[in-house]
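Archive maintenance. Older records in this collection stored only the sequence; we are now back-filling the structure field for every entry so that each record is complete. The fields below show one back-filled record exactly as it appears after the update. Entries are processed alphabetically, and Acyl-ACP thioesterase is next in the queue.

ARCHIVE ENTRY
Title: Acyl-ACP thioesterase
Organism field: Streptococcus parauberis NCFD 2020
Length field: 244
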Amino acid sequence: MGLIYKEELKLGFDMCDVKLDVKLPHLISYCLGLSGRQTELLQMSDQKVLDDYHLIWIITDHELTLDRLPRFGDTITIETEPFAYNKLFCYRRFTIFDQDHQQMAEIITHFALMDPDTRKVAHIPTDLVQPFESDFVKKLRRTPKIKTLENPKEKIYNVRYYDLDMNGHVNNGKYLDWIYDVMSYDFLSKHRPVAIQLRYIKEVSPDGTIVSRYEQDQLTTTHDITADGNLHAQAIIQWKEIED
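Back-filled structure field:
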C-alpha cells in the first residue's frame, strides 16, 4: 500500500464530449497532474528527480477499467495511490468516485525512469520511492499482448506544436486523441468504452507525421500509432452499445 492523495473535481464544458461524457484524454491528463501534485507535497517533484538523479519519469502503459464514465456537471473525487514498484517500474492507481463514493472508473499507470541523455531506462532508486511508502514487488505487471494489424483503416496526422509537452515530445493524452479520431462519429456517438489497454512504445518527435490505424472485431477495436514505419503505440479498446 502507498500513500493516498485525492482531489475533488467538477466536470465543466471543456472536459466533456458531445455525449456529455468526460473526454478520456482530459481525464488522464488531470490524473497525471494529480500525481504530480502529490510528488511535490512529498518533496520528490519531477525537477528534484532530474536534479538529484539525472532521471525523468516516462509512462509505458495505461490500464483503464470504466464502469461508468463521469459526465458533464458531475462532481467526482479522484484518488491516487502509488501502490507498488520493482526494479524497473512504478505502478500508480487512480480511482474515480461519484458523489456517493461509488467507484466509477480505475486507471493503473506504469511509470519508468529514463536517462534524458542516453534515452535508456534506469533502475528505480529505493530512496527515490521511499517517501511514497509503496510496496516492493519482484514480479513485473503483465499486460495483454496486442496483435499486429493486418488490414487496418488509417488516417495520417501532422504532429502540431501544441501536441508537444515540456520535454518536446508528444503529450501522452494526444495518442488517445489520434486513436479515437480514426473511428467514425457514428460509432463513437453510439458506444462507450468499458476497458482500454494503452501501451507507449516509442516517443513521437516534433515536425513529423503519424499514422493512426485500427481494426474492429464486433465490440473490440485494436489500434496502433506508427511513424516512418516504426511502431510508437498500441491499444485495445472494449466497447458497449449505449442503451436508449
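Update note: The chain has five helices and twelve strands. The mean pLDDT is 94.
Entry marked complete.
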